[in-house]
Every structure is written in structure tokens, then in C-alpha cells.
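Sequence in, structure out. Go.
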Amino acid sequence: MKPETRNRLIALGAILVAGSALAWIAFGNIGENLVYYWKPSEMVAQGQKAYGATVRLGGVVVPGSVLFNTEHTALTFQVADSHKGDAVKVTVKSEQTPPQMFREGIGVVVEGAFSADQVFRTNRLMVNHSNEYRAPTDGGMPDEAWKNSLTKAE
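Output:
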């Protein structure tokens, strides 16, 4: 066998091995690593397909729905699609301390699983917030700037 032919075969073999390894990494078990992002109405519409799957649920914390037990670090609240009082609300339970910015009426993304008892159990709670900074006016208090930013965001 000529050295040129042998070198071409070695190069072809190396390319096939590298391509196979890349394909295995890219496509192997990709279904197990997918995390869907749904709004509450989309998740409820999925019915039994939504049960047990790891999902990111995004929406707004329903005012008046937050219950936090500091003794057991148990947090329960409801999430709706938007501020408009949507009919579809999903109850979320978490056993972690919420982020400092967590409050009613703010956007959240929770990652976890929806169960047949219509409760979304989360192991990850993230707060959506705007990237706008509003400094308090001269003589104003920081709480006033925060309240003003909430009314402008809605």
C-alpha cells in the first residue's frame, strides 16, 4: 500500500471517529435534557402530558396568594399568565427560601414538575425583574421609587 493511500485512510478513519463522537455527544440522550417553558394556561392545556415532566413555568405571582412558613421554609403561591387576572392559575409549592426580590405581582420562572394533584413542585425559583433603575427623587424615600416603578411597569 502506498504511503499516500495509507495516510488518506488514516485521515478518513479519524474523521469518522471524530464525527461519530460529536454526533453521540450532540444527540445522545437529548430528550432527557430538554426542559420546556410553559405558561400556566399552556401547561394545564397539556393535561396528563404535563405530569412528571421537568418544566419551566413562567408567569406572574397572583396577589394575595403567597403563604410562607418560615419555620419549615415552605412557600406556596399561585402563578397566572399575566397581571390581567387570568382564569388559569397554578399552585406552586417550594421548600426553599425565596429570593429577596420575590413578592406578589412580580414575574417568576419556576423549574420543577407538575403533579396529578394540580400542584407544581419546584426546586428552583427565579424572579423576573426589569433592568431599569429609578433613583428616588430629591427628598424621596427608596420605597417610593420602588412603588412608582411597579405602577409604571404594569
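Check: The chain has a mean pLDDT of 81. The chain has two domains: 1-33, 35-153.
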